[in-house]
TrEMBL record:
Species this chain originates from: Metallosphaera yellowstonensis MK1
GO molecular function: electron transfer activity; ferredoxin hydrogenase activity; iron-sulfur cluster binding
GO biological process terms held by the UniProt record: anaerobic respiration
Keywords, comma-separated and alphabetical: Oxidoreductase
Entry-linked Gene3D superfamilies: NADH:ubiquinone oxidoreductase-like, 20kDa subunit
Residue stretches making up the NADH:ubiquinone oxidoreductase-like 20kDa subunit domain: 26-161
Top-level taxonomic group: Archaea
GO CC annotation terms, alphabetical: [Ni-Fe] hydrogenase complex; ferredoxin hydrogenase complex; membrane
Protein name per its UniProtKB record: Ni,Fe-hydrogenase I small subunit
Database matches in InterPro entries: NADH_UbQ_OxRdtase-like_20kDa (IPR006137), NiFe_Hase_small_N_sf (IPR037024), NiFe_hydrogenase_ssu (IPR001821)
Length: 170
């Protein structure tokens, strides 16, 4: 995929509902996509409907109201960046844990994509005190996985494009 194809694919992806959840993450994958250099990326990623970017740790667009809004969506691809701690108290938004949120969103998602090794298998946090796990460890449905620390932005875009355009459903 050359630069032009990459940006076109990314724009095409962002025309769909994409719910991007940042759990226990250093934002490496978000940064990789943001620094793609594609025109209008920041607006598309952070400010445009229907794209919903949720950081469970810190973000301009975060918080319970946004989560409630996202939980009412019906047709979206769920992207998870970052690990899920076994100790639920380590990743919560008000009364909802990261794991609860991912499980609930995954139930209605047309596809689930785990980006980065933390989201795939817990990554560097798996061996830490947090003893974190990946998305597939808590879901009973297919998860498209993009390994890497950080995962390649090109591979993330390719996985999302594939998930949106005909990859086998869960
Ligand atoms: S996989 Fe690496 S870059 Fe991605 S959230 Fe984990 S530590 Fe950060």
């Amino acid at each position: 995929m050359n630069r032009l194809d990459y940006c076109q694919a990314l724009e095409e992806i962002l025309r769909h509902n994409v719910v991007w959840i940042e759990a226990q993450s250093c934002s490496g994958e978000s940064v990789m996509v943001m620094k793609s250099g594609c025109k209008g990326m920041e607006d598309l990623f952070f400010h445009s409907s229907p794209v919903k970017f949720l950081s469970l740790l810190s973000s301009e667009r975060s918080g319970y109201e946004l989560i409630r809004e996202v939980l009412s969506l019906n047709d979206y691809v769920l992207v998870v960046e970052g690990a899920l701690p076994r100790d639920q108290e380590l990743c919560k938004v008000k009364d909802m844990t990261c794991q609860d949120l991912v499980v609930r969103l995954a139930q209605r998602a047309r596809a689930v994509v785990a980006v980065g090794s933390c989201a795939v298998n817990g990554g560097i946090l798996r061996e830490s005190g947090a003893n974190s796990v990946g998305v597939k460890d808590v879901l009973g449905k297919k998860v498209y996985e993009v390994l890497g620390c950080p995962a390649s932005d090109k591979m993330i875009v390719a996985a999302l494009y594939y998930a949106l355009s005909g990859g086998p459903d869960a």
